[in-house]
Design goal:
By secondary structure, this protein is an alpha+beta fold. The protein has six helices and four strands; from the N terminus they run ααββαββααα.
Length: 170
């Protein structure tokens, strides 16, 4: 039965080439439009809108000009961050962010060193937490990263390295 219906449909499509062409083009345009709308919406929803003042947060990028092409990088020099804050009117706060693939040494309850590799470590300046308005489980944002050799951990990272967030403090 299915073969018969398919054969009749193909004969009708072949007999009415003009209508077939219009229908196929219309279907193609409709599907392409749906895919483009989906991609646009997915791109827009990929941004974290849970950050307070997200409309006032900007990121510096470097525009590299080469002979054959242009390239953009999210990396700028550390002094450029402070220079921008001091010389560009309207910048209230600035914070440099540096991603690092590191090996972390943590001591367990017995004092034995545990070495863990982590690819999601970031070095940030203290203003980072004020800019992005992170919520704190313990300590205060003004104290975090104000001294050398201090760290701020997410709850997930504290559980990964110390078992729970309370063991990470101190």
């Amino acid at each position: 039965m299915f073969k018969l219906n398919l054969k009749i449909a193909l004969r009708n499509l072949w007999k009415n080439k003009g209508y077939t062409f219009i229908n196929v083009i219309g279907l193609s345009i409709g599907m392409a439009s749906c895919i483009l709308i989906f991609l646009f919406i997915r791109y827009q929803l990929s941004f974290d809108e849970g950050v307070k003042n997200e409309d006032r947060i900007y990121r510096f990028v470097t525009d590299w000009k080469y002979d054959a092409f242009d390239d953009y990088s999210n990396a700028i020099t550390i002094p450029a961050v402070k220079t921008a804050k001091n010389e560009i009117v309207g910048i209230e706060k600035s914070a440099a962010i540096f991603r690092n693939w590191s090996i972390i040494r943590v001591k367990d309850e017995t004092g034995k060193d545990l070495i863990k590799k982590d690819e999601t470590l970031y070095y940030v300046e203290p203003d980072f937490f004020e800019i992005f308005g992170m919520q704190w489980l313990t300590a205060k944002p003004t104290q975090s990263l104000s001294q050398p050799n201090t760290v701020a951990l997410s709850e997930t990272a504290a559980q990964k390295y110390f078992g729970n967030a309370q063991n990470a403090v101190g």
